[in-house]
Design goal:
The chain is of the alpha+beta class. The protein is 33% helix and 26% strand. The chain crosses the membrane at residues 153-170.
């Protein structure tokens, strides 16, 4: 039986929710849960070589790339080393869903232009406070992303015949 009180979504809303569901952080959320984020998604346009953020900046927003490419880089003695290239429908700056964190890398626009949604951290945490189920799902997804990163890091380390000391990176106290 069809529920006559169930919320109906416009075609534009459904397109946005499908876009969000492609993202690892949001993939487990329902349409109703996703609808909490859309009012806080601010579209910004960046130009080639423009910095979205720099290493050690406060992590005050989560970014979702709508179009273009972003280069994530480390600064090693004045020279950038590319960590990754972010493509449309990817997120970056995910540590913004954690409190009091700083950016771990530089994010620079690689293409002529880039369109990026920014979701302010304050709004994310407001949603988390009001809806702990959303927080639990997103933290689970973030943990999965971090686990995949660790798998890739260990594989790279094993493949490089130990050109760096893993003890320096892993649980170094």
């Amino acid at each position: 039986m069809k529920n006559p009180f169930k919320r109906k979504y416009s075609e534009k809303e459904l397109e946005m929710y499908e876009f969000l569901k492609e993202l690892t952080l949001f993939k487990e959320l329902t349409l109703e849960e996703l609808s909490n984020f859309v009012p806080y998604m601010f579209l910004r346009r960046y130009k080639h070589n423009e910095a979205v953020f720099f290493k050690d900046d406060p992590s005050h927003a989560l970014y979702i790339l709508k179009s273009g490419k972003i280069s994530l880089n480390l600064d090693l003695k004045g020279k950038f080393e590319r960590l990754a290239v972010i493509h449309a429908t990817d997120t970056f700056g995910e540590n913004s869903i954690l409190i009091n964190k700083k950016r771990l890398y530089h994010a620079l626009v690689m293409t002529e232009t880039a369109e990026i949604f920014a979701i302010p951290q304050i709004n994310i945490h407001e949603i988390f406070s009001n809806q702990p189920t959303i927080k639990a799902k997103m933290m689970e997804n973030l943990s999965g992303m971090n686990n995949k990163f660790m798998e890739d890091l260990f594989f790279a380390y094993q493949s490089s015949f130990g050109f760096f000391s893993m003890a320096l990176a892993y649980k170094n106290k």
